[in-house]
């Protein structure tokens, strides 16, 4: 008689599961408080009766079922807590193998504490456990299990039995269990026997039935009976089914029947069988593995393939998948093969996702690189939907990543995928990736500056026009000027119109200078657009355009620049002189001469500075008239202008200006006389620069000047020259 577990056992089992999940959620990985829980749960599993291979906890609405025992949420708070958690992570049942290790139990608790994002990386909670190599604990694999009949062993009339099962038009689950019970009783299976003995009896019974069918009805009716038998045998226990699949029979009909059981088996058992065959390394192992996988359909196959790819490196995985694809295409058509390939690719891709959360920087970096390499497969398959999922995962990682080197790898990977999409003309994918950069650009906090720089550089390399306006605004954002400038330069064909328009609209000088800097760095390509600004209505736009053309030495724009020497604004004329002088060719010099006729004295001064002495001689007399003071009390602005004229005369003047200069040395003022000191000092320096005999003589006389400042300054200058 089977041993019955008491209610205290079940209560303790539930309690330990609840404790383990709560500890894993509240404390960091590896916390010692989990150890006694794991050890207690392991001990409880060891206390299971010998005939029990596993223990299942099943969720039915707000109730937990273990064997025949019901545990209601209303009565036990821990049950409510467990039901809620199971619902959150999509658990309908948990089956613990009696041989579950402590490592598997610890891994199970960590999995049950996983966040929705972590579970999503694997697909679901069951896939997460498989990926961690936990095969002794099965999620949502609860099956009605009929191992044997405990009825009294008796002889069975096989002909009547066969007639009875063939008479069923449609098998219910109850019918299957009933007929299986009859069959097991007929072959002498007893529930207390070891699984191996039960398996041998089941196989012997099936062989006997196969002979009976051949003798009584003819081999042609085997197919009819085998279909019915495959349905009945589907409700065998997983252990017995697994043993049957491993059994090698020479009877091809029975072999086909055994193979039909594969789709009814849990994924873990199928993987276990494949692992055994892989380790055997027999001459037909690969053929047998492909044969097993051929019978699996739907989303299960990619999940199983993903697990064996990771956990069975001794298999030639690519060749197995290739063979399955070829057969699927032949049997079910190209569309079915493509669908299988897509799902297989998704499962394989998702197997990398958990590694993006590893603590090690090196492991995370490698995972990013591996996924980038994997993206080549997605492009080859033209599976752009999976590429979107990959980009979404990269994007969420970039948002949370704290290490700058890993962040850079992620952005680099997104950039490479975008470039490949551009090459292939997949514009919607390009735009999808482009949108992912935006949130990094809008962050203003200092800690995000380095991340922002990396993203800006990537945008520049991609020549992403979506961010032109943002890049211009980033020119005066703290710490991003250099990167934003380089990005704008790299996409000059697109950025130049935006920059020129911004230059027209911006009044802030500091902002204008940064925009101007970028335009100058773009070089000759910007000249046609800048020339158009020379006709702008705002004087400062015309001036800025002249400055840029001067910096670019735009000799092709000399005529347009020269015309602005007739501009109504003094600043524009001054900038035109400056631009022409920077260009420096003979034609520019001819235009500079026109500046001598300007009605703005400062323009005349600027023109004279950029011409030879002989060319400005006719203008000297007029210029010396500007030295006469217009105000009785010295004025700082007026004195600054006079100093500018005096310095010019020192550069281009001759004896004709010496007398006018010397007169300034004798000027006096009752108020603000100290403003004249700088002017008189400028006169003495200009006399020294003119250097003629008359100029030196005047300078010598100044050493005896009655004003001590003048005499002392004159002596100092003469000593130096």
Automatic annotation (TrEMBL):
SMART domains: EZ_HEAT (SM00567). InterPro entries: ARM-like, ARM-type_fold, PBS_lyase_HEAT. One of its GO terms (molecular function) is oxidoreductase activity. SUPFAM superfamilies: ARM repeat. This is HEAT repeat domain-containing protein. It comes from candidate division WOR-3 bacterium.
């Amino acid at each position: 008689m089977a041993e019955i577990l008491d209610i205290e056992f079940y209560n303790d089992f539930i309690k330990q599961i609840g404790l383990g999940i709560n500890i894993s959620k509240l404390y960091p990985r590896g916390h010692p408080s989990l150890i006694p829980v794991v050890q207690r749960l392991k001990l409880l599993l060891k206390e299971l009766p010998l005939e029990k291979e596993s223990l299942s906890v099943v969720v039915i609405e707000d109730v937990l079922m273990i064997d025949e025992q019901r545990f209601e949420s209303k009565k036990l708070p821990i049950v409510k807590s467990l039901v809620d958690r199971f619902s959150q992570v999509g658990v309908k049942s948990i089956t613990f193998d009696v041989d579950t290790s402590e490592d598997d139990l610890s891994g199970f608790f960590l999995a049950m504490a996983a966040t929705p994002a972590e579970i999503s990386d694997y697909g679901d909670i069951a896939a997460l456990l498989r990926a961690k190599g936990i095969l002794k604990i099965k999620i949502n694999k609860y099956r009605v299990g009929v191992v044997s009949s405990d009825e009294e062993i008796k002889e069975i009339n096989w002909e009547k039995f066969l007639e009875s099962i063939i008479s069923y038009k449609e098998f219910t689950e109850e019918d299957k269990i009933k007929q299986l019970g009859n069959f097991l009783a007929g072959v002498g299976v007893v529930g207390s026997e070891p699984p191996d003995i039960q398996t041998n009896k089941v196989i012997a019974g099936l062989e006997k039935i196969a002979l009976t069918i051949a003798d009584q009805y003819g081999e042609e009716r085997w197919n009819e009976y085998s279909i019915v038998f495959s349905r009945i045998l589907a409700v065998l226990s997983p252990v017995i089914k697994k043993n049957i699949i491993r059994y090698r029979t020479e009877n091809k009909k029975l072999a086909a029947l055994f193979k039909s059981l594969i789709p009814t088996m849990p994924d873990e058992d199928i993987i276990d069988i494949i692992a055994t065959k892989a380790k055997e390394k027999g001459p037909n192992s690969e053929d047998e593995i492909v044969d097993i996988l051929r019978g699996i359909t739907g989303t299960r196959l990619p999940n199983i393939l993903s697990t064996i790819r990771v956990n069975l490196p001794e298999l030639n995985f690519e060749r197995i998948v290739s063979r399955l694809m070829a057969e699927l295409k032949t049997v079910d058509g190209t569309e079915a093969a493509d669908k299988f390939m897509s799902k297989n690719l998704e499962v394989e891709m998702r197997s990398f996702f958990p590694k993006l959360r590893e603590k090690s920087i090196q492991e995370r970096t490698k995972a990013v690189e591996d996924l980038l390499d994997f993206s080549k497969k997605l492009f080859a398959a033209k599976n752009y939907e999976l590429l979107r999922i990959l980009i979404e995962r990269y994007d969420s990682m970039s948002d949370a990543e704290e290490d700058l080197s890993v962040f850079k790898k992620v952005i680099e990977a997104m950039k490479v995928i975008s470039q490949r999409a551009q090459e292939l003309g997949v514009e919607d994918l390009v735009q999808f990736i482009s949108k992912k950069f935006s949130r990094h650009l809008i962050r203003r906090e200092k800690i995000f500056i380095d991340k922002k720089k990396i993203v800006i550089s990537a945008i520049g390399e991609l020549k992403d026009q979506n961010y032109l306006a943002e890049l211009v605004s980033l020119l005066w954002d703290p710490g991003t000027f250099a990167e934003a400038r380089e990005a704008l330069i790299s996409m000059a064909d697109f950025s130049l119109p935006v920059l020129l328009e911004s230059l027209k609209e911006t009044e802030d000088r500091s902002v204008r200078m940064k925009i101007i800097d970028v335009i100058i760095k773009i070089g000759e390509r910007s000249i046609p657009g800048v020339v158009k600004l020379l006709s702008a209505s705002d004087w400062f736009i015309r001036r800025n355009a002249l400055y840029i053309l001067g910096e670019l030495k735009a000799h092709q724009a000399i005529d347009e620049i020269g015309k602005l020497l007739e501009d109504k604004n003094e600043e524009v004329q001054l900038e035109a002189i400056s631009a022409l002088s920077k260009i420096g060719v003979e034609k520019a010099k001819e235009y500079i001469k026109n500046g001598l006729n300007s009605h703005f004295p400062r323009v005349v001064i600027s023109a004279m500075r950029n011409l030879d002495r002989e060319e400005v001689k006719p203008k000297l007399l007029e210029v010396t008239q500007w030295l006469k003071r217009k105000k009785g009390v010295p004025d700082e602005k007026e004195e600054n202008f006079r100093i500018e004229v005096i310095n010019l005369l020192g550069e281009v003047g001759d004896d004709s200006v010496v007398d006018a200069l010397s007169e300034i040395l004798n000027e006096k003022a009752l108020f603000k006389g100290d403003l004249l000191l700088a002017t008189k000092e400028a006169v003495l320096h200009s006399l020294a620069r003119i250097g003629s005999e008359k100029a030196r003589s005047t300078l010598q006389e100044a050493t005896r000047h009655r004003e001590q400042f003048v005499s002392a300054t004159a002596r100092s200058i003469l000593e130096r020259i």
